[in-house]
Design goal:
Structural class: alpha+beta
Distance between the termini: 11 Å
Shape: globular
Helix content: 25-40%
Radius of gyration: 16 Å
Number of domains: 1
Strand content: 25-35%
Low-confidence stretches: none
Strand order of the largest sheet: 5-4-6-7-8-1-9
């Protein structure tokens, strides 16, 4: 499998140990804090979240993958305690209803589930039935794709146009 890391973090700010050293937000919990003298706002968080969801759609569209299997699900806390206005019915239902072994279809259902991962409410392995893609999320807003073959330049370019960074690992 070929592994890609997709992040909002410019790799130029990594040290020799590949650690990101610039002070930047990494979580919804950082809303209201200052970074570089500027307050990190909810609207900025939601815009970035939407870009990550777009990347998932772009990669899955290229791979013709219509659903992902959930396994090893971990739920961390209740949702909607902070910023309840950003939790719609689909997100709440996803949190309450998704279980190990189920398949989530691309579209609103998958976007809702990934939103919960990005907001650190849960974590899970996500894999295609065909085995040609695995989607994984790490701490601090890192997203990884494991794919059967290299992504073509047009897919990588679409991701970069979202002001995100794609790294082949």
């Amino acid at each position: 499998m070929v592994k890609y890391r997709v992040t909002k973090f410019n790799p130029n700010y990594r040290n020799t140990d590949h650690q990101f050293v610039k002070d930047e937000w990494t979580s919804l919990d950082d809303v209201g804090k200052e970074y570089g003298g500027v307050e990190f706002m909810l609207i900025d968080y939601l815009a970035m979240e939407k870009r990550y969801l777009t990347v998932v759609d772009v990669v899955l569209d290229y791979l013709k993958c219509t659903e992902l299997k959930v396994s090893n699900i971990e739920k961390y806390d209740e949702i909607g305690n902070r910023f309840p206005e950003i939790y719609n019915e689909s997100i709440i239902n996803s949190y309450n209803e998704v279980i190990d072994g189920c398949y989530i279809s691309k579209g609103i259902a998958l976007s809702s589930f990934i939103t919960l991962i990005l907001r650190e409410h849960l974590w899970a392995d996500l894999r295609s039935f065909e085995g040609n893609v695995k989607l994984e999320f790490g701490y601090d807003y890192y997203m990884y794709f494991f794919v059967a073959k290299h992504l073509p330049e047009n897919v990588i370019s679409r991701i970069r146009r979202l002001d995100l960074f794609v790294e082949l690992l």
